[in-house]
Design a protein that fits this description.
704 residues, alpha+beta, eight-stranded antiparallel beta sheet, five-stranded parallel beta sheet, 28 helices, GAF, Helix-turn-helix domain-containing protein
Length: 704
């Protein structure tokens, strides 16, 4: 190695807020190069300009006058201190262009800015991003800003080895002087392989490092006289011959990457091809310098893979957001499902997408699809594999993936043939669910192996749940605004729930007043029991397996109302399928359940869902019911008709007096004094008035 190359420094760019650098001393011990530090945002160009100047000052040195001038400037209030001048001012050998720039930075903005400055001034200088704390965001910034390497220093692997390897693997920039070109390239650290190859692809000379020679079945001394076609498959040999032809044709240095089979499997190499001026055996030839870059290529693939995963997740999240926005305008389930399939295919990440629904007989039926995998989609449209991942996703409620579809022996032959024709290599099946209701399954197809990582699986799991919530919301909206609904009456002969067991044992009647779920997912029911006192009901409830908690609300001699918290609720199951509960009664072990659904609801699906909770369920009646249309004025008049004068006066004084504000503008005593009644009487009128309003509001609203 010549002295000029040896003198080229490594620049370490550090954070100005962090006065310490972990890399400088270690790099000085690991390499023969000087290591200089530059804080951000220092004038980095002062060191990089030498790359363009090609050593104008380095060749002739810096005069004493120049040094005196620099010292005088600093002494007279210059912007850089003595320490900074040592790092950032080009003097002596510092005027040689740097051999590499290492960014010991953790701020994405600083990394991007420094890389842009380095590439603008010295595009041939390799750049290594070496943050103290690595992250996917920093890796993505480094990749997009064309960093040569990304080496986080907080990993178990020693970053110094990777930094030094990257520095040594970079070629020295080409000189305009032809005579010195080959010398400067050969003056670099010895590559793994060095050959002289004739213009016809014949090996003329060969030199391989001992540790590299062990990878090959043919000894280097046996290579001269053989050709590229003898050493490589036809396609690779043609690619390498083309590189030689272009190098000789343009008289310029060329580079090429290729794979070679070795005793340790396939390895990745990068070659620099340099045309020779003199002819050998009467023909043109090139020097072929090759380096094993398998590990670097693997790191680059991993970095690109992480970037692809981030972009994929961003696109999946964008689809989820769009689905939620679609909910506002989607008139029906079909519109939601069509939109999802189209958006997934439009993302250009996937070649196909389709949705199947579960039918009343427990089978799967194709609903809609989109994408270029037309043969595959036609195959699943005609028949869905009832033992495959799609059916498994519906049965288990879990994501199912096939990451190497063409090699999977469990895939039916017709489907595998269609996948091969459309180049479908991976598939993911995400159940479309909302709480305990499963509406179907979304299947997405990709033209690459191992397309669905764990993070993508999580994204599709969320997408399936979002679609399920949207479908449920659309069903409820259709039911809410429908003028005509369908009333379904179910008969339930026995069940393993508290109401059935209680009515059979004590010959009483249980009637559902209201059922619902709180924000934290707890399911509550308010049940009135006729023919039994509260203490007996409480004692029976506290020992029943289906009840988690129970509380007595109202007690009488022959009737009581209780609040119960259930582990599983048939009422909630019906609500998840877009049904509104109108009435549920259980008498002597036989239940009657009245529900309302929209006219286009899947009745068989609802009956099947109820059967999951109550085994002996029968649909005994189906009726179309016209809903009465009430205007706001009519409802207001109905409320006023139910209030007494005293109740209405109390409500008005409380409302306008600020009794319902927080904090209160008027107390109950002040309202009572204004009415010239006692506070207890005022509260009695207030509560009865509020109850009348709430009864009117909830009347006819069912139990949803």
């Amino acid at each position: 190695m010549n002295d000029t190359h040896r003198s080229r420094p490594i620049i370490v760019v550090t954070d100005v807020r962090d006065q310490e650098t972990d890399l400088r001393a270690r790099l000085e011990n690991a390499t023969e190069h000087d290591v200089r530090t530059v804080p951000v945002p220092a004038d980095l160009e002062s060191l990089l300009d030498a790359a363009d100047a090609k050593g104008d000052g380095a060749a002739e040195g810096v005069t004493d006058g120049d040094r005196d001038g620099t010292e005088t400037s600093a002494a007279n209030g210059g912007s850089r201190s003595t320490d900074t001048a040592e790092s950032a001012t080009p003097t002596g050998d510092a005027l040689a262009s740097p051999i590499a720039v290492v960014l010991e930075l953790d701020c994405p903005g600083d990394i991007q800015s420094v890389l842009q400055r380095v590439h603008a001034v010295a595009p041939a200088v390799p750049t290594i991003v070496a943050p103290k704390t690595g992250s996917e965001r920093l890796a993505t910034v480094a990749l997009r800003a064309d960093a040569t390497e990304y080496v986080p220093t907080n990993r178990d692997e020693d970053p110094i080895d990777r930094i030094v390897t990257t520095v040594r693997s970079q070629p020295i920039e080409r000189s305009d002087e032809t005579d010195s070109r080959n010398e400067r390239i050969l003056g670099d650290e010895l590559p793994d392989e060095a050959f002289v190859i004739g213009e016809d692809g014949t090996y003329l000379e060969a030199k391989v490092r001992p540790d590299s020679a062990e990878l090959y079945s043919m000894a280097p001394d046996d290579l001269p006289g053989t050709t590229l076609e003898d050493a490589f498959p036809d396609a690779v040999a043609a690619k390498l011959q083309d590189c030689i032809d272009r190098a000789i044709g343009t008289d310029g240095v060329r580079s090429v990457e290729y794979d070679a089979e070795t005793t340790e499997g396939s390895r990745r190499f990068e070659a620099r091809v340099v045309p020779l001026d003199q002819r050998i055996q009467g023909r043109r030839a090139v020097v072929w310098l090759a380096r094993d870059i398998t590990e670097r290529a693997q790191r680059e693939r991993e970095l690109r893979s992480r970037q692809d995963q981030l972009e994929t997740l961003n696109r999946i999240n964008a689809v989820v957001r769009q689905v939620i926005e679609t909910l506002v305008e989607a008139p029906a389930r079909d519109a939601i499902e069509d939109e999802v399939c189209e958006q997934l295919v439009d993302s250009e990440l996937y070649c196909g997408s389709w949705i199947a629904e579960r039918t009343g007989d427990g089978q799967l039926s194709y609903r809609t699809g989109a994408g270029e995998a037309e043969t595959y989609l036609e195959c699943v449209r005609e028949s869905i594999d009832h033992d495959g991942p799609v059916s498994q996703a519906v049965r288990t409620g879990e994501i199912r993936t096939t990451n190497r579809l063409l090699d999977d022996e469990t895939v039916p032959e017709p489907l595998q043939g269609a996948a091969s024709e459309d180049d479908v290599r991976s598939a993911i099946a995400a159940p479309i669910t909302h709480e305990d209701a499963t509406y179907g399954v979304l299947t997405v197809l990709a033209s690459r192996d191992d397309a669905f990582s764990e993070r993508e699986r999580a994204g599709f799991r969320l997408l399936g749940e979002t679609i399920g919530f949207t479908i449920m919301a659309v069903k409820n909206r259709q039911l809410l605004f429908a003028d005509t609904v369908v009333e379904l009456e179910f008969r339930i002969d026995g069940g393993d729930t508290f109401s059935f067991d209680l009515s059979e044992e004590y010959d009483c009647t249980c009637s559902l007043e209201w059922a619902g779920t709180t924000a934290n997912g707890r399911t509550f029911q308010y049940v009135t029991v006729d023919g039994l006192d509260g203490d007996t009901v409480l004692e029976a409830a506290r020992t029943h397996d289906s009840i988690e908690e129970c509380r007595l609300i109202h007690d009488g001699e022959e009737s009581c109302t209780i609040e119960i918290r259930l582990a599983q609720s048939g009422v909630r199951t019906l609500e998840n399928h877009g049904a509104t509960i109108r009435d549920v009664t259980v008498d002597s072990g036989v239940g009657t359940c009245l529900v309302e659904v929209s006219q286009n609801a899947a009745v068989r699906e609802i009956a099947e869902a109820l059967t999951v909770i109550y085994e002996n369920t029968e649909l005994v009646a189906r009726r179309e019911v016209d809903r009465p249309v009430r205007t706001a004025a009519q409802r207001r008049n109905r409320i006023l008709d139910r209030l007494t004068d005293r109740q209405l006066t109390t409500l008005r004084l409380a409302y306008y007096g600020g009794f319902f504000d927080w904090p209160r503008e008027s107390t109950g005593e002040e309202i009572a004094e204004a009415m010239d009644i006692s506070p207890p009487t005022m509260h009695q009128h207030l509560r009865k008035g509020l109850r009348a309003i709430l009864e009117e509001f909830f009347e006819g609203s069912g139990h949803s």
